[in-house]
């Protein structure tokens, strides 16, 4: 090896050693700081409740309904509520026997669920990323995994609801528990938890289906012993191979074939049963929505996927931004015709399918109102200028998840579309679970990405609560001051 090469390697080693040591120390500092914040979370809860002691937006429906359930009045239902009563039943079971059903105690449930989300996120991240082989890095690795879990739990559009009585945090609890049992191959328990999650938010059925598809793909890999079938879109060769395997098993006798089917399908059946139960519910209920259906009429709103991709880019930018150079070099420069056609297609969708729910235009208690008022409505060209951002965001999301089976990624996109596309209302709360599933499945990050994500999470959370506390206004038909939130 030449002396110049040795000198260059030595300089590179010294150059990278200092930032790594700095980042490692900073990760430890952030870990202890975030852990301290988690311990005093209850103090923030009571502080925020001192400002918002009365109902906040939809709490005027949720809290009275929960109080009725606490009093045993299970047949009285507010027709304005569109979700199933899972949260109210859980609250009544937890607080009713102790006669503790007050607005503050009902809100406290979400504080407990926030702590549970932190634990569940840590376990899921640890399970998905495996264990470190180097003992010397075990402590640092635990710090990193904890920070990733902390960022997921305190993800701003989710964390905002921790001090209020909404379904979002409890719904995520059940989804994360379902995912954890799925990863542990406890599929009966996972499917049961999936049914419970549907009882809180009906759209959670999509994530039960996602895990069922994921397990089905795993079984196909095991049967065929050819994982490339689920890593590509070559469906026909896969079906032919499966047909040959099933035909061979059937030749060995009916009893043997039935045992083969039982052993093959036993882990898929619980998810199938959960999905079948939901289909029966839809037929009986004549729709997915309970209560008032006028505000949630199913529609075809494809631009929701574009909004979601922008949403992911904003909050997960440290993980997606590194793909920008590759996007410009490999996608734009080398595939100019393809990217031009794709851009035209995106512009056409935006032009024909940009829909606006009346709530967006009328309710100034949501961030989306101000985005629409000050940007989308004011400047007609603005929605088209976002096309390159949408294209990059979707490309970067794919690249950040390309370590998954291709069919698993396709299943995730399909389930995300099932959740978002029928929604007319642009509501960041609908993006929470798709975002968090995207986040937990992303590749294990570098140190700087964890630090950047943590600082972003801290900054946005501080900003949103400062704004919530200090910015108030009044509505003519509301007695108490109104505040801005997600």
UniProtKB/TrEMBL annotation:
Location (main, coarse): endoplasmic reticulum
Enzyme class label: transferase
Keywords, in A-Z order: Endoplasmic reticulum, Glycosyltransferase, Membrane, Transferase, Transmembrane, Transmembrane helix
Membrane topology of this protein: Multi-pass membrane protein
Gene Ontology CC: endoplasmic reticulum membrane
Gene Ontology MF term list: dolichyl pyrophosphate Glc2Man9GlcNAc2 alpha-1,2-glucosyltransferase activity
One matching Pfam family: DIE2_ALG10
Record pathway: Protein modification; protein glycosylation
Compartment(s): Endoplasmic reticulum membrane
Biological-process GO terms, alphabetical: dolichol-linked oligosaccharide biosynthetic process
EC numbers, comma separated: 2.4.1.256
Superkingdom in the source lineage: Eukaryota
Transmembrane annotation, as ranges: 25-48, 106-125, 145-163, 268-285, 305-324, 336-360, 380-398, 405-426, 446-469
Catalysed reaction equations from the record: an alpha-D-Glc-(1->3)-alpha-D-Glc-(1->3)-alpha-D-Man-(1->2)-alpha-D-Man-(1->2)-alpha-D-Man-(1->3)-[alpha-D-Man-(1->2)-alpha-D-Man-(1->3)-[alpha-D-Man-(1->2)-alpha-D-Man-(1->6)]-alpha-D-Man-(1->6)]-beta-D-Man-(1->4)-beta-D-GlcNAc-(1->4)-alpha-D-GlcNAc-diphospho-di-trans,poly-cis-dolichol + a di-trans,poly-cis-dolichyl beta-D-glucosyl phosphate = a alpha-D-Glc-(1->2)-alpha-D-Glc-(1->3)-alpha-D-Glc-(1->3)-alpha-D-Man-(1->2)-alpha-D-Man-(1->2)-alpha-D-Man-(1->3)-[alpha-D-Man-(1->2)-alpha-D-Man-(1->3)-[alpha-D-Man-(1->2)-alpha-D-Man-(1->6)]-alpha-D-Man-(1->6)]-beta-D-Man-(1->4)-beta-D-GlcNAc-(1->4)-alpha-D-GlcNAc-diphospho-di-trans,poly-cis-dolichol + a di-trans,poly-cis-dolichyl phosphate + H(+)
PANTHER family found in the cross-reference section: ALPHA-1,2-GLUCOSYLTRANSFERASE ALG10, DOL-P-GLC:GLC(2)MAN(9)GLCNAC(2)-PP-DOL ALPHA-1,2-GLUCOSYLTRANSFERASE-RELATED
Family: Belongs to the ALG10 glucosyltransferase family.
Summary of the function given for this chain in its UniProt record: Dol-P-Glc:Glc(2)Man(9)GlcNAc(2)-PP-Dol alpha-1,2-glucosyltransferase that operates in the biosynthetic pathway of dolichol-linked oligosaccharides, the glycan precursors employed in protein asparagine (N)-glycosylation. The assembly of dolichol-linked oligosaccharides begins on the cytosolic side of the endoplasmic reticulum membrane and finishes in its lumen. The sequential addition of sugars to dolichol pyrophosphate produces dolichol-linked oligosaccharides containing fourteen sugars, including two GlcNAcs, nine mannoses and three glucoses.
Protein name stated in the entry: Dol-P-Glc:Glc(2)Man(9)GlcNAc(2)-PP-Dol alpha-1,2-glucosyltransferase
Organism, as annotated: Ceratosolen solmsi marchali
Gene: LOC105367866
């Amino acid at each position: 090896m030449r002396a110049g090469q040795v000198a260059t390697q030595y300089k590179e080693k010294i150059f990278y050693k200092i930032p790594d040591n700095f980042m490692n120390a900073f990760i430890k500092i952030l870990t202890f700081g975030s852990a301290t914040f988690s311990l005093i979370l209850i103090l923030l809860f009571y502080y925020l409740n001192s400002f918002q002691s009365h109902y906040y937006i939809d709490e005027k429906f949720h809290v009275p309904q929960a109080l009725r359930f606490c009093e045993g009045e299970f047949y009285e239902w507010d027709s304005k509520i569109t979700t199933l009563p899972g949260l109210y039943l859980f609250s009544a079971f937890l607080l009713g026997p102790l006669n503790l059903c007050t607005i503050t105690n009902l809100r406290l449930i979400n504080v407990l669920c926030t702590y549970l989300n932190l634990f569940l996120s840590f376990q899921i991240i640890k399970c998905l990323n495996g264990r470190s082989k180097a003992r010397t890095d075990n402590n640092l690795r635990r710090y990193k995994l904890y920070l990733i879990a902390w960022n997921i739990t305190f993800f701003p559009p989710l964390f905002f609801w921790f001090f209020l009585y909404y379904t979002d945090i409890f719904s995520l609890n059940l989804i994360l528990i379902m995912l954890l049992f799925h990863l542990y191959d406890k599929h009966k328990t996972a499917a049961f938890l999936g049914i419970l999650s549907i009882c809180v938010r009906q759209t959670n059925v999509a994530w039960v289906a996602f895990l069922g598809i994921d397990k089905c793909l795993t079984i196909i890999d095991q049967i065929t012993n050819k994982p490339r079938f689920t890593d590509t879109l070559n469906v026909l060769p896969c079906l032919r191979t499966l047909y040959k395997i099933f035909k061979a098993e059937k030749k060995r006798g009916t009893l043997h074939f039935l045992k083969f089917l039982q052993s093959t399908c036993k882990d898929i059946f619980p998810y199938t049963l959960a999905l079948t139960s939901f289909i029966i519910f839809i037929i009986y209920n004549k729709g997915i929505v309970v209560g008032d259906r006028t505000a949630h009429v199913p529609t075809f709103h494809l631009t929701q996927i574009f909004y979601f991709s922008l949403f992911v880019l904003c909050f997960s930018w440290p993980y997606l931004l590194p793909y920008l150079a590759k996007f410009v070099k490999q996608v734009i420069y080398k595939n100019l015709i393809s990217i031009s056609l794709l851009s035209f297609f995106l512009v056409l969708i935006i032009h024909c399918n940009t829909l606006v729910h009346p709530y967006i235009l009328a309710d100034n208690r949501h961030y989306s109102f101000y985005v629409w008022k000050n940007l989308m409505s004011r400047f007609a060209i603005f929605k088209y200028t976002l096309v390159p951002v949408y294209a990059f965001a979707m490309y970067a999301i794919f690249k950040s998840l390309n370590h998954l089976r291709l069919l698993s990624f396709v299943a995730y996109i399909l389930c995300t579309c099932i959740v978002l596309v029928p929604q007319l209302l642009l509501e960041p709360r609908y993006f929470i679970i798709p975002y968090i599933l995207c986040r937990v499945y992303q590749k294990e990050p570098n140190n700087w990405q964890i630090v950047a994500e943590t600082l972003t999470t801290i900054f946005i959370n501080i900003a949103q609560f400062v704004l919530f506390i200090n910015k108030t206004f009044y509505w003519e038909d509301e007695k108490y001051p109104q505040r801005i939130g997600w």
